[in-house]
């Protein structure tokens, strides 16, 4: 798969995940150097090493070279093998950190994915397992990846000790569908999940009440569920969190979440999450800000046709992602204001011509 | 005076009863009361009014205001009795604000609860398709009748399309979603062609192509293939036995090869030209009789039955 002579070069430790994913999908080798070279503790962190190990497990023929100081890596991608893989994630990042890149790779594997990840299921850096299940996976459905797409939260694990376990199942596809998603619609329902492990179970009810106190004035269709995990299933550390999502008439999903912090009441956590949801909805567009990357990636991998998607302002990560796409696939997006007549609107219309990416790893029929 | 006193009491009782009935909003026009009122209107009106105050305090429990107004209107109409009847019916209608409607919330909430739990289950399900499908189902229940009708016609159209697609002559095996390998697809196609041309029964075409292909192989290979097949069948039976869902009567299901050839029944007894001799009798089958008499089996039977029916009619 690795094409000799095609090497993409980057500096710095940021955006490592998306670069590795793009490298594996495009088949171009990637070299990243100056990884925290000015830091007191230079080189790759344990979670980054762990991610590299995981990528090595799910692929076949990948060559990863890390320099002695750990400040430079070279990755020559192999094929995405898939199959059943299990991985123990370090406690420095949640399983969301590892799942996000794998969700991008999984549909293009040789065999359907059956990935078991153990560690922290919810933290404040990455998407929690709940949001991945209720928001990220439905985003994949837009591209025709739906049958057998599953995320089972077997055990929850709160930081710092973790002890959670999730199982991710993903079917394989030959090619993803072209997206045409320009109608944001109106918000019609709000759903949420509050969970509390190894603390008073009333905490989730307190969060739900506090969140409802804000949301009730907007729409009537609000259901916030409290998810109960007991005993072994609740992990090793105490913690609680609230994740909320709002769905529109055209099935646009916006989401937000907040995780317990020491010395903060559940009510405040719930209000943080609720206000974050409202500002997320205020951003507009058809795709949540945390999922812009995923949608854009699937758009360029679509069939050779013009895909369109309306989004809010791109996040910093998204902007860099667009640049990286250009260096790996040579595809750039056409970005125009969605409503040129309204100067106050910040929504943008992203359109691109798909690469016609076909899953060559798939065992041939 | 005793007579009038009694009448007054009776009147009070009537008033009381009327008020009681009125509190239930029954359309019962008072008849007798009117007449008594007419006779003794002037004489008793003050007294009744005086009594009414007491009763008000008693009946406050039933919705004080309404009853009071009705009673007052009753008293008011005492003086001008031409409008009396209307007054009464009107009084029952003025009661309306007191009516407390107890709607049938019980069943509704139960239904809603079931829907809620179903929604929750779907939302908390690990399958991504369920998370979104449940939300679609929830919204569809609110749809108007027109939409439902449209959906029905759409469904019908879908069914027609499905039938069209799946009754195509050759599409079955060529469908890309089957994920057949190239060789498999080719054999399936050849078999389908055989079936369509009528040289194989439906569903047996592929097998025949496979068998002819097998016959091209060397003897050793052919025998190996057959032996392997037998082994597979045995293993399948063994597994079924272990699972406990085997019964000798199901043997046919498991012997894929033998059931098809259909072993011929051996003629027992002495063979003597025609028929068979067993247990001291010569047994002739119907075909054998027909072969001698030269009648087609069907025609003979048909005639026979007709004759019988005629006879039956004749007896009648």
Question: How would you describe the overall organization of this protein?
Answer:
The complex is a heterodimer of chains A (365) and B (316). With 365 residues, chain A is an alpha+beta fold. Chain A is built from eight helices and 18 strands. Chain A has helices spanning 16-26, 46-58, 95-105, 129-141, 202-215, 266-283, 292-301, 316-329, and strands spanning 7-11, 29-33, 59-60, 63-66, 73-76, 79-80, 82-88, 111-119, 150-155, 164-170, 180-181, 187-197, 222-227, 239-248, 253-259, 306-311, 334-337, 348-353. In chain A, helix 1 (16-26) packs parallel to helix 3 (95-105) and helix 7 packs parallel to helix 8. A three-stranded antiparallel beta sheet of chain B has the order 1-2-3, with no helix packed on it. Classes of the chains: A alpha+beta (365), B mainly alpha (316). The A-B interface holds A 133-134, 137-138, 140-141, 146-147, 149-153, 188-189, 191, 193, 223, 225, 227, 247, 251, 364-365 and B 116, 119-120, 123-124, 126-129, 131-132, 135, 139, 176, 179-181.
Reconstruct the topology from this structure.
The complex is a heterodimer of chains A (365) and B (316).
Chain A: E1 7-11, H1 16-26, E2 29-33, H2 46-58, E3 59-60, E4 63-66, E5 73-76, E6 79-80, E7 82-88, H3 95-105, E8 111-119, H4 129-141, E9 150-155, E10 164-170, E11 180-181, E12 187-197, H5 202-215, E13 222-227, E14 239-248, E15 253-259, H6 266-283, H7 292-301, E16 306-311, H8 316-329, E17 334-337, E18 348-353
Chain B: H1 2-22, H2 32-59, H3 64-79, H4 84-94, H5 105-124, H6 128-140, H7 145-166, H8 171-174, H9 182-197, H10 205-216, H11 219-243, H12 251-254, H13 256-261, E1 270-271, E2 276-278, E3 281-283, H14 286-293, H15 297-315
Helix pairs in contact in B: 1-2, 2-3, 3-4, 5-6, 9-10
